[in-house]
Structures are given as structure tokens and as C-alpha cells.
Amino acid sequence: MLRVAVVGSGPSGCYTAQSLVQLDSGVCVDVLDRLPCPYGLVRYGVAPDHEKIKSLQNNLRTVLEHDRVRFLGGVQVGPGGVPAARLRGLYHAVVYCVGAATDRHLGIPGEDLPGSWSATQFVSWYSAHPDAVDGGFLRDARSAVVIGVGNVAVDVTRMLARGLAELSPTDMPQAALTALAASRVTEIHMVGRRGPSQARFTTKELRELGTLPGTDVVADPAELEPDPGYTDPSALPAPQRRNVEVVRGWAESPPADAPHRIHLRFFLRPVELLAEQGHVGAVRFERTAPDGRGGVTGTGRYEDIEAQLVLRSVGYLGVPMEGLPFDARTGTVPNLAGRVLREGVVTPGEYVAGWIKRGPTGVIGTNRPCAKETAMSLLGDAPLLASKNVPDDPLMALRAEGTDPVEWTGWQSIEQAEAELGASLGRGVVKLPDWQSLMTAAHGDVV
Ligand code: NAP
């Protein structure tokens, strides 16, 4: 029997566990997570109003309920928890599926002013991540700037425009629901530094902005025209061409008089966040122009956009894991088809999958083939790995050393507590937003 630890229970961790047990009937997998709850970004990243994507949890659930898979929540690997070296001693192999845990920075003056947040902080708050802070994001805000034009930018823009009727059927925590429902933000500017044909959002997500009740989406044709892909989209790949067509539709529509406006802005790069009485009051952008090579150059012309709330949505970044090599430039662990490389040499027994392997790109389904490749590499090394001496049951060893994981039944108790909380509020399932209530529920006590 080959015992494998998968660190991280998001899509890449679950798909890795699935591939391992499907490809080899002699493998047992423990899926460890720092949180008492499984599913990673499917639980704490997918927007609450994206029911269909969230329902992927049901697929991941079947993996974690497999006979030869165990979920062990509330287990920190690394400083303050189980040292990585100890974990390697407990299992024949360890696969790190820890994602990209932080956000990229802009590196411009004023970035850390009050009122300026990473989109990740905002997403964590409305997704009830237990480490999230309630930053009073919407307090006194009338105008918001979202920097970046990827799918996360679209998510946060949409959440800012949604009203109570659309948000209350979601599982978002009550405090976030109350704050978003009371929001007075009417102008939301989503700003790209390049042109619409180079935006990273997908057409389905983009199009959804045009379906939001009480919301007008506006774009200025004059701002779009410098993009050669906008003026002549015929040579663009289909996904970009469709994006351009959607943006063109909005640019050509007469403005409506809706209570909320989403302004799609392009060819503006952020250069500074400007303060007003100690709080962000505007973002200064430099107008850019295409450089003919897919990038942009500055034009020396500037524009300030008013914003009491700034959400920086410029991508995620992997963080180093104790005991693992790390490429700071890409935010990934150097690897060969999932096998960890130390100074260019494969280290059997250590693997990576998901964003920490390939960087923060792709949709959830992209993790399937990525995880399968890693699982195949690991199973290719199985004859070598199987000769290692490991304890019969790593869980007993972990317990003996003072780690008390939240097992599957503990997670089921959390799910039950969330259903009960929702019922008490006259809503569906409502997520528990803090460590204390999660751990209390996991241990079966009344919340
Ligand atoms: P992303 O797709 O990489 O988009 C990042 C955006 O930030 C780009 O528009 C990028 O512009 C811009 N940017 C980067 N550095 C910048 C800077 N210094 N100044 C101004 N703009 C800057 O990242 P993401 O939106 O965080 O998404 C991460 C992944 O999750 C993606 O694969 C995404 O599709 C996926 N996701 C999917 C869904 C969904 O399917 N519904 C939802 C959320 C996330 P440039 O292109 O010019 O660099």
C-alpha cells in the first residue's frame, strides 16, 4: 500500500487524489488542509452567485468520500504546524496543491492607503474565509475602481452591482450581505492597461455584467479604437473576438438611466492612488497606447478617476512553502511534469499540482489534466517510493504528536451548522465566517 499526503483540498488537491486512487488500487490518500473546510477556492474564491460553478463541490465531495481517501482538515503544514520534513517521514510521497496564496502588488505610491484592498481580501470577506478581515470596504463609498480586467475583476465588479434580492439566496455570510445590500456605490470602473482584445476575462463572465438588474454597462468607442483587434477583430482567436463583440455592443448602445453603472475602461495604467483626508479618493492613471508588440507605452497624459474603494485585481501569486524550492519570478515550485526539481534534479517523493505547479491561470477544469500528469509521475516513481518505511497509519502518528485533524464527520457537522444558521435567518445555507464558530461546529457543539 502506497500512502500519499496531498496538501490542499482545493480542485487541484481533489483531482490529484482522484487520479491517484483511480489509476492505482494500491494507493491511499490523505488530503490535508489548513482549514477545517475542504474545497479551497471553490468554497472561498468562486463568487457566491455562481451557483453552477459552486456545485462542482459535489464532484469534489465524491473524491473526498472515496474509500481510500481521507480528509484531514485544520492541519497546517510548515511553521507552527506539522514540519514538511515530518510529513515526508509519515508518507511515501507528498503532493503540494497549495495554490497561489497571495496577490500581486502594483508597486505604485498610495497602494496601501485606507480604502485600497486587494480583490482577494474583498473576495475572502464575502466568501466567509475565516482569516478575512471585515475592512468596512463599502463605508462611505460612492465610486469604486477595480484595477485589472480578468475574471476576478469581473467577479468583484458584479458583486458590487448586485442588490439584496440577488444576494440573499447565496451562502454569503450575513454581515457581508447586509453591507453589500446597504452599499451606496453607484459607479464602478473596471480598468485595463491594455485594449479590450487583450483583456483576460472570459466572454461568459463578461456578458453576465450586461444582465445585472438596475445596471448599465458603458464603454467609450473612442477609447477602444486604438486597439487594432477592436477595429478589425477578424484575425483574433475566437475567445478574444467574442469579448470584443460584447464590448462593442455596449459601446454602441445609448446610455440608460440605471441606478448602477459599470464603466469599462481601457488603455489606462495605474500610476498612483491619491489620498483625500487620509483615505483613498481617486486613482491616477496614465493613458497608454499599443506598442505594436502586444504591450503598451505611456503617453504622458493622465486621468484621475474618483474612488473611495479601490480593488486591485491584478492576479494571484504563489508563496514559498517551507522545505520546497521556489521560483520567486513565477511564484511556482520548479518541477518536471509535477516532480519537484531541486537545482534541476528530480526529488522522488515530492510533487506539485495546480497553481503552485503552473501559475495562477486557467479555470477549475484546467486542474484535472494538470493533476493527472502529476499523479502519473508519482505512480511512475512508485517502485522506488514503496521501499520507504512509513508508519501504518499516519493519522495515529499525527495525533500522538499533538495534531488533532478535523475529519470528514467534523466537516459534515460544519455543513449542518451552516444549514441551521441559514434556516434561523430565513435563508438557505449561510457560511460560518470565523475560526471559532467553524471549530465549535466541527467538534459537534452547538454554535
Ligand atoms: P488574470 O486573469 O491574470 O488577470 C489579471 C489582470 O490584471 C489582467 O487584466 C492584467 O493585465 C492586469 N494586471 C496585471 N498587472 C497589472 C498592473 N501592474 N497594472 C494594471 N493591470 C495589471 O488574473 P485573475 O483575474 O486574478 O484570475 C486568475 C485566474 O482565475 C484566471 O485564470 C481566471 O480565469 C480564473 N478565474 C476564473 C473565474 C471563472 O471562471 N468564473 C473566476 C475568477 C477567476 P495584463 O493582461 O495587461 O497583464
From TrEMBL:
<keyword id="KW-0560">Oxidoreductase</keyword>
<feature type="binding site">
    <location>
        <begin position="362"/>
        <end position="364"/>
    </location>
    <ligand>
        <name>FAD</name>
    </ligand>
</feature>
<feature type="binding site">
    <location>
        <position position="355"/>
    </location>
    <ligand>
        <name>FAD</name>
    </ligand>
</feature>
<dbReference type="InterPro" id="IPR036188">
    <property type="entry name" value="FAD/NAD-bd_sf"/>
</dbReference>
<dbReference type="Pfam" id="PF07992">
    <property type="entry name" value="Pyr_redox_2"/>
</dbReference>
<dbReference type="InterPro" id="IPR055275">
    <property type="entry name" value="Ferredox_Rdtase"/>
</dbReference>
<feature type="binding site">
    <location>
        <position position="12"/>
    </location>
    <ligand>
        <name>FAD</name>
    </ligand>
</feature>
<feature type="region of interest" description="Disordered">
    <location>
        <begin position="212"/>
        <end position="237"/>
    </location>
</feature>
<feature type="binding site">
    <location>
        <begin position="193"/>
        <end position="194"/>
    </location>
    <ligand>
        <name>NADP(+)</name>
    </ligand>
</feature>
<dbReference type="InterPro" id="IPR021163">
    <property type="entry name" value="Ferredox_Rdtase_adrenod"/>
</dbReference>
<feature type="domain" description="FAD/NAD(P)-binding">
    <location>
        <begin position="3"/>
        <end position="162"/>
    </location>
</feature>
<comment type="similarity">
    <text>Belongs to the ferredoxin--NADP reductase type 1 family.</text>
</comment>
<dbReference type="InterPro" id="IPR023753">
    <property type="entry name" value="FAD/NAD-binding_dom"/>
</dbReference>
<protein>
    <recommendedName>
        <fullName>ferredoxin--NADP(+) reductase</fullName>
        <ecNumber>1.18.1.2</ecNumber>
    </recommendedName>
</protein>
<feature type="binding site">
    <location>
        <position position="362"/>
    </location>
    <ligand>
        <name>NADP(+)</name>
    </ligand>
</feature>
<feature type="binding site">
    <location>
        <position position="41"/>
    </location>
    <ligand>
        <name>FAD</name>
    </ligand>
</feature>
<keyword id="KW-0285">Flavoprotein</keyword>
<keyword id="KW-0521">NADP</keyword>
<feature type="binding site">
    <location>
        <position position="77"/>
    </location>
    <ligand>
        <name>FAD</name>
    </ligand>
</feature>
<keyword id="KW-0274">FAD</keyword>
<feature type="binding site">
    <location>
        <position position="205"/>
    </location>
    <ligand>
        <name>NADP(+)</name>
    </ligand>
</feature>
<dbReference type="GO" id="GO:0004324">
    <property type="term" value="F:ferredoxin-NADP+ reductase activity"/>
</dbReference>
